[in-house]
Amino acid sequence: MAKKIRPDGKEKVTGRLKYLTDLAFSNMLYGKILRSPYPHARILSISTDKARQLPGVQAVITHKDVPGLNGFGIVTPDQPVLCKDIVRYVGDAVAAVAADSVETATRALELIHVQYAPLPVLDSPEKALEEGAPLLHPNGNVLHRAGFQKGDIESEFAKCAAIVEETYHVPRQLHAYMETEGGVIVPEKDGSLTVYVGTQHGFKDRFQLARILGMPEEHIRVVSSPMGGSFGGKDELNIQPYGALLALSTGKPVKIHQTRQESIRSSIKRHPMKITMKTGIDQDGRLRAHQTTIVADTGAYATLGPAILDFAVEHTSGPYMIPAVDTKGISVFTNNGVSGEFRGFGGNQVTFALEGQIDRLAAAIGMDSVEMRRLNIRREHDLGPLGQQIAETNGALDVLQSAAAVYAEKKPSSQNQDRWKRTGTGMAITMHGGGLGFGRMDPAGGRLSLKEDGKIEISFGFEEAGQGILAVIETITTEQLGCAKEDISIMIGDTSLVPSSGSTTASRGTSMVWHSLQRLKKPFLQKLLTRAARKTGTKEGQLSIGPGGIWENGECRLSFRELASEQAPIVISTQFDFPVSPDPIDSAHFLYTYSGVVAQVEVDLLTGRINVTELHQSLSAGPVVNEMGYLGQIEGGGVMALGYTLMEDVIMADGHYVTENLDSYLIPGIKDVPFNLQVKAVESLPAEDDYGPRGVGEIGTIAVAPAIANAIYDAVGLRVSQLPVKPETVLKSTEERGVLHGSQSSNSGGN
Amino acid sequence: MKPPKFEYYKPATLEEALNLLEEAGDDGKIIAGGQSLVPIMNMRLASPKCLIDINGLEELSYIKNEDNTLKIGTLTRQSDVEQSEMVANVCGLLAEAITQIGHVQTRNRGTIGGSIVHADPSAELPLALLTLNGSVQITSKDEVRTVAAEDFFITYLTTDIMPTEVLTEVTIPLMEEKSGYSFQEVARRHGDFALVAAACHMTVDDEGIITAVRLALGGVEAIPLLIGDAEDILTGEQLSDLLMEQVTESVEMESDPESDLHASSEYRMHLAKVLTKRVLTQAYERARG
């Protein structure tokens, strides 16, 4: 397949693209948000008088100035826009200011006097669940419980030759998108409001803003694309309500663009989880019983916490068929930063634990871990992990075979040049559901139009966050219609101009674009050809669509411009739902993607440093739409996961951020990227598959951490159970066991 | 973030720069490559009222070998030194240290003098300068003085230089024949400030007896730390595991690394000892050829 340059590529690499935070309007003001200095406190009073008197300050707002619902949250609006009586984390907003300059707005924040009475800080789920702990929300400190049971767990455990029980800890990860939250909110002359702020779901933002502002949705236009990265982090509202309230109260455009420090303080993160797994295997290598407890620190507010826990529960047994499964999950409110949507959506956490179990179990019965995976892997006609019917593919076995071939080639670890270094190879596999799952509204849609200017406009309510949706739309549209990329224009990310397509999330964009085109193509082409036949006096059957226009006998008879001229536009729309399982099992997914990962590491026994030298990812997600976009997602996802494995951790102490910026929160740089980085797409789908290419936005991030962890074990015998893996941990473990001087023994105690 | 407001001057001559500096007093700050100063200003950790940009002073950019002394003008870009064949030939330690500073982009802009006056305790150039027994030339309106590296660094980000002075030249006595060097560091990521860095410069005679040695560590104290005992322990001896053990004991005695988010004190100490052995071994091997 030819490598197609993405349509937004040139503008991005030349720096010409205007992001929404680059916009400026005349008379524009600058907004700043005052957030709580306490992780948990009662607000006794708020005095804004001095701030209002500061020259250059045009508005100071507090909870009193919220005309509608003082709350937001994609599912449950439990997070106050501006806190009135209680603050529950250090990102909670108490007031906001609009001023002539950023400096004045910042100064004004210092002049707002808020009296707080600090309350006990619940900085861990354990503390929040203690009897007598203060209640953070009216319904208590448990946001959500989820579970799944099948089979008789005790009798299956009784049949096991080995049982491994381990507790895994995974950190709070920062999305670290390049563009921090921001944009401009403009009050229009007709009383409406235009919100130029990057988000993953413009229509959802509009809905939430309407509720907060007490305005009809139709009076709000959300322009939400392009964005400088999101990874799930901009699905929830961030600065939009403050910008909107300030714009409405001043009648002027207000720009807010958070600093990195403000962003880290207020943004959502990946859920830290404590996952205990007890898994049993019989003497033939068959997994028999799998018991899991998940405790998720969801922070101060709900956002998508419940759905993420549901997703984690669903993916607890991964691509394996296990007769008895018992999973219990709890998502707990704390006074830590809010946890929410993040690429992988709970799958990363449980996959790290599960694939750690698999390697430990194989070792426990002395079986080759690849063989053991093969023995237990799901097959084409097997039901999904919650017992639901899913789109049948052989993806799990395909990626296992593909990864196994790489693993076999890499496994015989070469002798290191330096006697203080050890090389190891590890493997992990996973499956990952796309879309929101059964029982959740998951509408999609798109629109094709032949505009007056002769352009074929393809339009979706998706946003370009760098993931490459524009390239996907361009490729699928031109391939399906048979026209050239110059013939089309793509319209996305503007609620006044695009149809609702649902959220740009859950690896659903590529799928939904393809499904839309399947629905739009036929009626649209039919209309074009009918009109062309009329205009040219040729029979429809002799005409076809080609680059530039309508073709007949290998020649372009009529350009799209000629076809469009002096007539009404041709418009075809579609609305449908993301495909779900026919079995009504809550939150169960239907379309899955699969990955098999092989990692090779080099461990320095004198410094404890881990260098990931090779990362091979095999994917099964249907046909590749755009090769560059696919590679970008999988390679980028792999490197993001490498950071999760080896360095990233948003550290909090007593409810305060310790890592406040990118000087202390480290993400991988180009030199940390494995030198040998390979992506292999297994594109085959069953002949009867109706669902086309699946999205790959998340799958590249999921099985990398356990593959690296298993490689570390292979290299130095350390069983990793906590991320990120720190050099000091490796050093301590290898020194204790005398690995350098030859007496290498495995440490089943983990770290 | 953007820096707070400041006045900006771009003098055409060193004399003009020194006059401006004298006038500005404590409010003035020289800007050269800006690779340390600009981030600090953007983060609002420093807000000098007056920036004096010496980037136009081409006369401060040179690399010379005079009287067996390497002389490098303060404004010389780190990448120019990195790419200098002459430096590679006569002062391998400096060449090796430079490649470990930040990234290509920061080295293209960052200057020799800038990194030394910034005096981060784990930065490469201050450590290399100390190990090589170099010195700096400091110029003010009234005088030109020379300060040895050993006396120049005072504490974190603090040197002997006064607000009205400019570091104008770095001088390094050149290697004797039969000498070897090594510069190694461990950072959390490539290009980050080192958790610990170690540098060694050593000369040996034909029998492999060490005739002179300087060993220094970065990141274990508030300033780059010369391990004076190394000279006493190793001079007159061939390098052996036993002697290296003794040196690492001195390292442990003399350094007191801090704990922070990136590494514990114990881990830094461990690295100091590991790197000490590595640089001693490599320098010795290189010296013996």
What does this structure look like?
The complex is a heterodimer of chains A (about 750) and B (about 290). Chain A is of the alpha+beta class and about 750 residues long. Chain A has 3 domains: about 20-120 and about 175-265, Aldehyde oxidase/xanthine dehydrogenase, a/b hammerhead (Aldehyde Oxidoreductase, domain 3, Alpha-Beta Complex), CATH 3.90.1170; about 375-435 and about 585-735, Aldehyde oxidase/xanthine dehydrogenase, molybdopterin binding domain (Aldehyde Oxidoreductase, domain 4, 2-Layer Sandwich), CATH 3.30.365.10; about 445-575, Aldehyde Oxidoreductase, domain 4. In chain A, about 25% of the residues lie in helices and about 25% in strands. In chain A, the strands form 7 sheets. Chain A has a 7-stranded mixed beta sheet, with helices on both faces. The relative contact order of chain A is 0.12. Chain B is α+β, with helices and mostly antiparallel strands. In chain B, the strands form 4 sheets. Chain B has a 5-stranded antiparallel beta sheet. In chain B, helix 10 (about 230-235) runs antiparallel to helix 11 (about 240-255) and helix 11 crosses helix 12 (about 265-290). The longest helix of chain B is centred in the last third of the chain and has 24 residues, at about 265-290. In chain B, about 45% of the residues are buried.
In short:
Chain A contains 18 helices and 28 strands.
Poorly predicted tracts of residues of chain B: none
How are the strands ordered across the major sheet of chain A? 3-5-1-12-9-10-11
Number of strands of chain B: 14
Task: Summarize the biggest pleated sheet of chain A.
Answer: 7 strands, mixed
Q: What fold name stands as the CATH topology of the largest domain in chain A?
A: Aldehyde Oxidoreductase, domain 4
Structural domains of chain B: how many: 3
Main sheet specs of chain B: 5 strands, antiparallel
* Mass-distribution shape of chain B: globular
Shape designation of chain A? globular
Name the beta content range of chain B: 15-25%
**Whole-number radius of gyration of chain B?**
19 Å
**What is the arithmetic mean of pLDDT of chain B?**
95
Q: Biggest interface and its residues per chain?
A: A-B, 20 and 17 residues
- The CATH architecture category of the largest domain in chain B equals 2-Layer Sandwich
Number of strands of chain A: 28
CATH superfamily of the largest domain in chain A: Aldehyde oxidase/xanthine dehydrogenase, molybdopterin binding domain
Distance between the termini of chain B: 50 Å
The figure for the number of domains of chain A is 3
Distance between the termini of chain A: 45 Å
Q: Decide which structural class fits the backbone of chain A.
A: alpha+beta
